[in-house]
């Protein structure tokens, strides 16, 4: 009897030991797996990204923008601030990133920097059309772009296009962003340097050899911008922006930036703008460190607004060269399955009514006195735009189907 109970005790001890070992092993495996997930796989290269087959080929919605506008002539000191009015310091995170499957949470959205509000754009464009241009100088990139200073001290980047399609792309991309509620593109107006407003700089304009009655674009000049690199999840081996991604290491400032990047990806897909993330991916073939450098045509304001500049490759030129770039565009779009709710709603509306051409045209015509001079999208390009809206819509549906159960 005693032998039996000793045996039972030994058996019990053995079982307990086995259980402890089993649990410990499982925990170790989970920790290992988590570590693996956090370290990007170097084996998944840009080529792997390319191997993915290419996809077959208003209400007043701008958020409350608070801008710090200094009085007098100091418009160049303007800074974009967060909606809360406080700089985002990247400190410990208190906000859940996601909500309802594939959307950035409302809480996170409420902390996003407001960008360029519609009211701000209206006020700026009135000024830019009225004030005399006092000087033109380098300071906005290539020599055909000029930094203009107005009589009230504010400034604009003037872009002259060798052909009209560059200015059209820049201008219509701006209006498309407004249609989508994406407030990261600085306000823009068209101008004719042959007009009286430019009398002060006539000699300079002649020296630039701009064609006689050329239409140029003027974009608000923003002070204190800095460069910004592509965030890790959006690099070829970064795993994408998905509800299944691990956001535990991201600070609130990181998440606020990622939310704006999700808009950037949708915007650049719709406009087929290759001159930002996509051209970097392309360059990886011969420049393996390109992702570590600042992304072209993307800048960041001190309080976290991403500023999408130089959109001239979009819509017109971008659509002409789609054959070359589409596989990259669709790879980037596929890597994003988290969206800003408003952007997704806008896309859904434009898909449902199939009216992106009409809505873009009306907004452009009603906002821009020189719209008729510059012209609009051709029928073919308007069809491509609608087709891309439909594709983004279907992609969002696909993401919802895949991740809503999470
Ligand atoms: N709206 C702006 N506000 C402030 N700086 C600007 C603005 N637009 C352009 N710049 C400055 O000019 C540089 C080149 O601008 P970009 O428009 O990309 O010119 P390019 O046509 O030469 O590519 C930017 O990196 C930035 O330093
Ligand atoms: Mg540029």
Descriptive account of the structure:
By secondary structure, this protein is an alpha+beta fold. It has 14 helices and twelve strands. The strands form four sheets. A five-stranded antiparallel sheet has the order 5-6-7-9-8, sandwiched between helices. It has a three-stranded antiparallel sheet with strand order 10-11-12, covered by helices on one side. It has a two-stranded antiparallel sheet with strand order 1-2. Strand 3 (about 100) and strand 4 (about 105) form a beta hairpin. The longest helix is centred in the first third of the chain and has 37 residues, at about 1-40. The radius of gyration is 26 Å and the shape is globular. Adenosine-5'-diphosphate (ADP) binds near residues 142 and 222.
């Amino acid at each position: 009897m005693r032998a039996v109970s000793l045996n039972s005790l030994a058996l019990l001890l053995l079982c307990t030991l086995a259980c402890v070992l089993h649990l410990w092993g499982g925990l170790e495996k989970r920790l290992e797996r988590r570590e693996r997930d956090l370290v990007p796989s170097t084996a998944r290269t840009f080529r792997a990204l390319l191997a993915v087959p290419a996809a077959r080929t208003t209400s007043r919605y701008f958020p409350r923008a608070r801008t710090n506008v200094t009085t007098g002539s100091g418009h160049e000191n303007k800074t974009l601030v967060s909606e809360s009015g406080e700089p985002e310091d990247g400190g410990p995170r208190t906000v859940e990133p996601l909500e309802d499957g594939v959307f950035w949470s409302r809480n996170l959205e409420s902390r996003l920097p407001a960008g360029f509000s519609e009211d701000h754009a209206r006020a700026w464009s009135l000024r830019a059309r009225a004030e005399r241009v006092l000087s033109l100088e380098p300071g906005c990139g290539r020599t055909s772009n000029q930094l203009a200073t107005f009589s009230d001290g504010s400034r604009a980047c003037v872009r002259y296009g060798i052909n009209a399609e560059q200015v059209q792309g820049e201008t219509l991309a701006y209006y498309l962003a407004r249609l989508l509620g994406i407030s990261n593109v600085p306000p823009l107006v068209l101008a004719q340097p042959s007009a009286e407003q430019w009398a002060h700089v006539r000699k300079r304009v002649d020296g630039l050899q701009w064609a006689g009655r050329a239409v140029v674009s003027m974009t608000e000049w923003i002070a204190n911008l800095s460069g910004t690199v592509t965030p890790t999840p959006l690099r070829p081996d970064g795993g994408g922006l998905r509800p299944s991604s691990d956001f535990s290491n991201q600070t609130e400032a990181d998440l606020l930036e990622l939310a704006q990047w999700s808009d950037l990806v949708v915007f650049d897909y719709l406009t087929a703008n290759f001159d930002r993330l996509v051209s970097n991916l392309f360059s990886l073939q011969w420049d393996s460190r390109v992702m570590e450098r600042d992304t072209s045509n993307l800048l960041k304001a001190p309080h976290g607004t991403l500023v999408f500049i130089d959109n001239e490759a979009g819509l017109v030129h971008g659509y002409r060269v789609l054959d070359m770039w589409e596989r990259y565009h669709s790879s980037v779009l596929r890597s994003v399955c988290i969206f800003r709710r408003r952007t997704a709603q806008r896309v859904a509306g434009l898909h449902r009514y199939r009216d992106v051409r009409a809505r873009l045209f009306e907004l452009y015509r009603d906002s821009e006195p020189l719209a008729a001079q510059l012209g609009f999208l051709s029928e073919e390009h308007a069809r491509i735009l609608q087709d891309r809206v439909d594709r983004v819509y279907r992609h969002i549906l696909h993401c919802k189907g895949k991740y809503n159960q999470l």
